[in-house]
UniProtKB/TrEMBL annotation:
Region (Disordered): 1-40, 561-591
Example of a GO biological process term: recombinational repair
Name the record gives this protein: Helicase
Domain UvrD-like helicase ATP-binding: 244-674
A GO cellular-component term linked to this record: cytosol
Residues where ATP binds: G265, G266, P267, G268, T269, G270, K271, T272
Biased composition (Basic and acidic residues): 27-40
Length: 824
């Protein structure tokens, strides 16, 4: 591997480890003994850390048992806190023993600081060295050594054995550079597995110094912890980057949480990794504030699955919800994609107007032959719309004959009273003239019906005494509302609408046409209606990813109908103290309760949007509703946007983020793609967004992308052969990226090749990475949608090692097989 940035002694070291005889044996032995000695030093430290952790767990367990024995010692809060401590300590030890390859991963050796102040973690706080820290002849003594790990551990004398990576004292581990070293002389990355230290890699931040530690010269072993991490084979899950976070990334991770943090950067610059590490950092910084939960919005379930393990590996679980944008609404797990033309309509801000009309229109007697939407509940309580109900009704409808909504007929005070279509319509319009959600207007509609019937009854004039008049009125209302015919009418005339029900009603092209007049053109109207047919008559069918934002909007427009309150015997103490909220429920543990609350949560304290460039205006509205009082971190790359109208989305984004001040960061280094692949991808970037700069690739492999041309029009054999070849070449995963409509075909092409290789539609490749990729027919991907070139750019930037481009005839490949789109 040829390293493009900084000098690599790692290559030499690798040679020592693997090539043996190629290196001078005497030097190699010396080198090895220094390395072994340094590994031994770190091993002793790690042993000490484990001893201390075990001690702490025993301490916590003892306290716990002791407290339990003595029953009522301490407040419930203190007991719960102790419980939580034992629980956390147990988790940590379990993890330390089993999961982590590198619980302790870093170390910095520092010069004496300007002042002698220590922070809460026991480390000196000064960033700059004391004026006399460097002696004559550039000699210096190491004054402080800090070990950095996934959690902080204090020794019994409160000296720091391990500093939490998120603590201020750990920042120099990430920030120090030879240009701006601060107090750091040597930065060491420690590789360990379980309780065993396997290796160390050092970077010298002040190579000009002759530094010593406890009288011995400071040893320097290898370098390139970053390069080692980047060269590793990729699996099906993302790894954390905690031991090699780079300075520009660290600035974002530790940015203050106020308002909005916006991060842009090209493919592979670590935006997703940075966003997840930031979530862990924020929780560490201010756990109380973020107890309100952190929501990470991810574009696809595949990316959710890919990134899900990162936070637990950083010691954080429970407070962070990573949700795909198609799963933000409870009960909706959408994975289907609409064709681009339909997605474009559903995502557009114009849909808001259509939905507003639909939400109200669904109520009106706009259905042929009088009857309104039939109330018909399935298990999920969804409203089903009768498709153009026949006025004659069904044969077997005798017991549930459709209720007329153009005439209300009741008997009250022994008199027959009627309201006719015109009057009913006037009442409805008057109720609807307000802006309140439709379902919440039902009580008002009911009241106006009663007013109109009361007026008809002529009873108002019977008493002049206001008290008697009021009494009479109230018994009139009781009389009317206890009549089945009135209740049945109200249910039919002002039914409780559900989002799915209204969406399903929009599948009728004529009806939708009325609601979308002058908003969508007839072609768009037809497409939209046709796509919603998938929901079925009862609205219970499968949703597309874009339907979910419409559902969420409808939920707001319709409003949750008022539910009758559950009666329960109130303990007067409950009301006085709110104890019910504070006390742990007996039948539910603290932890279960936390999980339940997290599941029920609809608003969050912090919202992180990954791949933000892809949110449509309607999706921005949906995400915005979940963070109305939140602080935000928004990461994305305009060059990778699969949304056709970036200006419209930017507007919706501004609306969601409001006027909160924004802090902007740009990441500039591509850690994923070797230079050879990045260079090829930049050709598409130049076509998609002329003038946009590509991020700088940090390494090069010397392996150029390969080009293959499909024979006889069927890509199966060519793609399969390439996938097989790449599986032999790399240790990790291989991704085959095709146009969306070839997804299923492509899975068949790869049948039997094992689970290291996967087929992906172009939109699904978003955010993911593989050791090697095969991109099939760039032209086909580019032609899929108005944003096709940007989608192709995403597809071409997924590989960490090797890339093969397979062209079909429409790609117009040249003699070398290079498709037209990728030529100079
Ligand atoms: N500091 C780092 N140390 C080690 N690996 C890193 C570092 N920064 C990023 N990486 C690796 O680079 C790859 C790309 O990171 P990530 O997926 O977060 O980038 P991204 O900017 O979100 O990319 P894209 O926009 O293409 O989705 C990942 O494998 C990540 O682990």
């Amino acid at each position: 591997m040829h390293v493009m940035k900084g000098a690599s002694v790692a290559a030499q070291d690798a040679a020592v480890e693997t090539a043996g005889p190629a290196v001078d044996p005497v030097r190699a032995t010396e080198h090895d003994s220094v390395r072994d000695r340094e590994i031994g030093v770190e091993q002793r430290h790690l042993d000490q850390v484990y001893r201390r952790l075990e001690e702490k767990i025993h301490e916590a367990e003892f306290l716990m048992n002791d407290a339990a024995k003595r029953g009522q010692v301490g407040t419930p809060g203190a007991l719960a806190e102790r419980d939580a401590q034992v629980f956390r300590a147990g988790i940590h030890l379990n993890r330390l023993n089993n999961e982590f390859e590198d619980f302790l991963f870093g170390r910095i050796d520092l010069l004496r600081g300007k002042d002698g102040k220590k922070g809460p973690d026991g480390a000196y706080t000064s960033v700059e060295p004391a004026d006399d820290a460097i002696g004559s002849g550039s000699t210096a003594e190491i004054a402080e050594t800090l070990h950095i790990g996934r959690i902080g551990v204090l020794d019994s004398d409160y000296s720091p054995l391990v500093i939490d990576w998120r603590a201020p004292a750990a920042a120099p581990f990430y920030r120090a550079t030879p240009v701006d070293p601060g107090r750091v002389v040597r930065r060491r990355v420690i590789r360990s597995k379980g309780r065993r230290v396997l290796g160390v890699e050092d970077d010298l931040m002040r190579p000009e110094l002759t530094a010593s530690l406890d009288g011995d010269a400071l040893a320097v072993i290898g370098d390139g912890a970053l390069m080692a991490a980047l060269g590793q084979a990729r699996g099906h899950t993302m790894r954390d980057i905690v031991s090699s976070i780079q300075a520009e990334q660290d600035l974002v991770i530790r940015a203050p949480a106020a308002s909005v943090t916006e991060v842009s950067g090209g493919p592979g610059t670590g935006k997703t990794a940075v966003a997840l590490h930031r979530a862990a950092y924020l929780l560490y910084q201010d756990r109380r504030r973020y107890a309100g939960g952190i929501l990470v919005v991810s574009p696809t379930p595949l990316l959710v699955a890919y990134t899900e393990g990162v936070l637990p590996s950083l010691g954080e679980e429970g407070q962070v919800a990573i949700r795909a944008v198609g799963s933000l609404v409870d009960g909706a797990e959408a994975t289907a994609y609409d064709e681009p033309a339909v997605a474009r309509i559903k995502g557009s801000a114009r849909m808001l107007k259509v939905l507003r009309k639909a939400a109200r229109g669904a109520l009106e007697g706009s259905f042929p032959a009088g009857p309104g939407p039939r109330r018909d509940r399935d298990q999920q309580g969804q409203l089903a719309f009768g498709e153009d109900l026949d006025a004659d009704g069904d044969e077997d409808a005798a017991e549930a004959a459709p209720v007329r909504t153009d005439l209300l007929r009741v008997v009250a005070f022994g008199r027959r009273l009627e309201l006719e279509a015109g009057e009913l319509n006037r009442i409805r319009q008057s109720v609807l003239s307000g802006t309140a959600p439709v379902n919440l207007l039902r009580p008002r509609a009911r009241r106006l019906l009663l007013d109109a019937l009361w007026a008809k009854s002529g009873s108002a004039q019977r008493h002049t005494d206001p008290e008697l008049a009021a009494e009479l009125r109230s018994s009139f209302d009781e009389d009317v509302t206890s009549e089945d015919s009135f209740l049945a009418f109200l249910d039919a005339w002002w039914p409780e609408l559900t989002p799915r029900g209204v969406l399903a009603a929009m599948a009728d092209e004529r009806r939708l046409g009325r609601w979308s007049r002058r908003i969508l053109n007839p072609g768009e109207n037809r497409r939209l209606a046709r796509s919603l047919k998938r929901l079925g008559l009862d609205g219970g069918g499968p949703l597309s990813v874009h339907d979910v934002a419409l559902l969420d909007e409808l939920e707001t427009l319709l409003g949750a109908p008022p539910r009758p309150r559950k009666r329960r015997d109130l303990d007067p103490l409950d009301q006085l103290t709110g104890l019910e909220e504070l006390m742990p429920q007996r039948e539910e543990s603290q932890r279960e309760r936390a999980e339940r609350l997290a599941a029920e949560r609809t608003e969050y304290a912090h919202v992180i949007v990954d791949e933000a460039q892809d949110l449509t205006p309607m999706q921005w509205r949906m995400v915005g509703r979940r963070g109305r009082h939140a602080t935000w971190t928004v990461v994305g790359d305009a060059a990778q946007s699969s949304w056709s109208d970036p200006d419209e989305a930017a507007e919706a984004r501004d609306e969601a983020l409001g006027t909160r001040p924004r802090r902007r960061f740009t990441l500039t280094v591509n850690y994923r793609n070797p230079a050879e692949i990045a260079e090829l991808a930049s050709k598409v970037l130049a076509l998609a967004l002329p003038g946009m700069e590509s991020p700088r690739a940090v390494r090069s492999t010397g392996v150029r992308p390969r080009f293959r041309v499909v024979q006889n029009g069927d890509p199966a054999a060519t793609v399969r052969a390439e996938a097989r070849r790449l599986l032999d070449q790399v240790d990790g995963t291989v991704g085959v990226v095709v146009a969306m409509n070839r997804r299923e075909q492509a899975a068949r092409w790869l049948a039997g090749l094992g689970d290291r290789v996967v087929a992906l539609g172009s939109l699904e490749a978003k955010g993911l990475e593989y050791d090697a990729t095969v991109v099939v027919s760039p032209a086909e991907i580019a032609d899929e949608s108005p944003a096709g070139l940007r989608v192709l750019y995403v597809a071409l930037t997924r590989a960490t090692q090797q890339l093969t481009v397979v062209s079909a005839a429409r790609d117009e490949p040249d003699a070398e097989g290079v498709p037209d789109l990728l030529r100079d």
